[in-house]
Write a structure and sequence with these properties.
Blueprint (H helix, E strand, L loop, with lengths): L1 H19 L1 H9 L9 H10 L5 H12 L3
Helix pairs in contact: 3-4
């Protein structure tokens, strides 16, 4: 009886870990804040780093994103 309960709880725990993937939850609990990949500033940084846009274009667009409309 007790062994059956332990096995059931173990199975439930494994299913919860697989379904909820603790990685994002653990990062949030640690306070590890990473910018969203679709954040416009991050996109500009990646494009500038990859050489798709030059420094003037990068600075102009970042300035535009910083303004309150």
């Amino acid at each position: 009886m007790m062994l059956r309960l332990v096995v059931i709880l173990l199975v439930v725990a494994v299913v919860l870990v697989v379904v909820f993937r603790p990685g994002p939850l653990l990062r949030a609990l640690r306070g590890d804040r990473r910018p969203a990949l679709d954040d416009p500033r991050e996109i500009l940084k990646r494009r500038y780093a990859a050489g798709e846009i030059d420094e003037d274009e990068y600075l102009r667009r970042m300035s535009g994103l910083s303004q309150d409309w």
